[in-house]
Design a protein that fits this description.
Elements: H1 28-38, H2 47-55, H3 59-64, H4 67-81, H5 87-92, H6 107-114, E1 136-139, E2 158-169, H7 171-174, E3 181-190, H8 191-195, E4 204-210, E5 214-215
């Protein structure tokens, strides 16, 4: 999280626009993009590789593209990268030899498949947990991984572990195609620690962080 998309704690970008109503899509094509993503259009693309692709977008595009336009752009890049598409096919808007699936999914089937579905990212490991609930930890100041779930605003800060979740897939490795489990914790930080003396002393921020993101202070 060292690129333009890591906006947590930063100022100067104006208010977040919140639309009234509960419609999840602004345009019909966004429904199609969501359905294609949920139906597994891009085989072999993991959640961390997808996120890493978004992080690598040109900053001006990332700041101006709406959510599902980011998705479209990212899927095109990832599918060209893994050989599912060529650049010429992407520019033409269709593949040279399209697949003919024997049993294509309808939108209703995609909705039924994903409604209420839960995905577990737990991966067992023999490594013992290095920390316990109640321990104080100090987050790393810098990230050396190309993809990390440690936000910039919480780096080099002291927090307290309030929950241990067992071992889950480490995103830093997942973005590289390496699926390893690491101990995951919920860490609580005081607003004063993160934002300084002007913050409300009663406020806290809690984050789910992997063990390699911090040390003992």
């Amino acid at each position: 999280m060292d690129s333009m998309h890591d906006l947590g704690g930063k100022q100067g970008f104006g208010p977040v626009p919140v639309k009234s109503g509960d419609a999840p899509f602004s345009h019909d094509w966004e429904r199609r993009m969501w359905a294609l993503a949920r139906s597994g259009i891009a085989h072999g693309i993991t959640i961390d590789w997808f996120r890493h692709g978004l992080e690598r977008m040109v900053p001006a595009d990332y700041l101006t593209f709406p959510c599902f336009k980011k998705w479209v752009t990212n899927y095109l890049m990832l599918m060209i990268d893994n050989g599912a598409l060529t650049m010429d096919e992407a520019l033409q808007g269709h593949v040279q030899t399209p697949d003919d699936p024997a049993d294509p999914m309808t939108l209703a089937q995609v909705l039924d498949k994903n409604r209420g579905g839960a995905v577990s990212f737990e991966i067992e490991t023999d490594a013992a947990a290095a920390f316990s609930v109640g321990d104080t930890v100090l987050t790393k100041r810098l990230s050396t991984a190309p993809h990390s779930r440690l936000p910039a605003y919480v780096r080099n800060a002291c927090g307290t572990i309030i929950t241990h979740h067992g071992t889950h897939a480490l995103p830093d490795k997942g973005a590289l195609g390496i699926h390893e489990g690491e101990h995951l914790y919920t860490v609580s930080f005081s607003a004063l620690e993160l934002w300084g003396p002007d913050a409300n002393p009663r406020d806290t921020v809690t984050l789910e962080l992997w063990e390699s993101y911090f040390d003992r202070p």
